[in-house]
Amino acid sequence: MRRALQLAELAAAVGEVPVGAVLVQGGEVLGEGFNQPIGSHDPTAHAEIVALRAAARRVGNYRLPDTTLYVTLEPCTMCIGALMHARVARLVFAAREPRAGAVVSTQQLCEQGSFNHRLAWQEGALAADSAALLTAFFRARR
Q1: Could you report the per-residue pLDDT of 3-37, keeping only the tens digit for each?
Q2: Where are the alpha helices (DSSP H) in the chain?
Q3: Which of 14, 24, 62, 63 is the most buried (most CB within 10 A)?
Q4: Which residues does the annotation mark as catalytic?
């Protein structure tokens, strides 16, 4: 999660919402990313999606079983869908996202019985650090 926070700081430095993500398998980083929809002109370029894309290219497969995604902010609906399709085994997120978080805040998509994959998840790792980074970013923009 510390690496994800470093990536979130990179996002903030280039004017993107500070979210970072790292996908790991057996202690090895397969992919990482930070939010970049503004700079890349791509509404899907959330940190989670960037990390999944990098990992999929690296392993040569869109399925990423037995992996864990560490992300600094609770994923949105789009990102949960991508994690399910990629068959990521576990999600660890730092802070909740009260407006668009789709794990616990606005929806509980990981608990939906309609998916043919189960995504284990936990929250809270370095939550205060992630929340402080987000608060400082948005305070500076106002």
Answers
A1: 999 999 999 999 999 999 999 999 999 999 999 99
A2: 2-13, 37-40, 47-59, 77-86, 127-141
A3: 24
A4: 48
Which H/E stretch holds residue 91? strand 90-95
Q: Residue 142 — pLDDT band, cuts 50, 70, 90? A: confident
Q: Tell me the mean pLDDT in the region 126-140.
A: 94
Nearest-angstrom CA–CA distance, 71 and 78: 14
Q: Locate tokens 């902010």: which residue?
A: 73
Res 115 pLDDT > 90? no
Spell out the residues 6+ positions from residue 25 whose beta carbon is closer than 8 angstroms to its own. 64, 66, 67, 68
What is the rounded CA–CA span in Å between residue 25 and residue 66? 6
Question: 98-106 — which CB contacts under 8 Å span 24+ positions?
Answer: 100/76, 101/73, 101/74, 101/75, 101/76, 102/74, 102/75, 102/76, 102/77, 103/74, 103/75, 104/74, 105/74
Q: What's 115's DSSP letter?
A: S
Q: Point out which residues pair with 13 in neighbouring strands.
A: none
Contacts of 86 (CB under 8 A, 6+ apart): 52, 56, 62, 63, 64, 67
Q: What SS3 state is found at 3?
A: helix
Record the pTM: 0.95
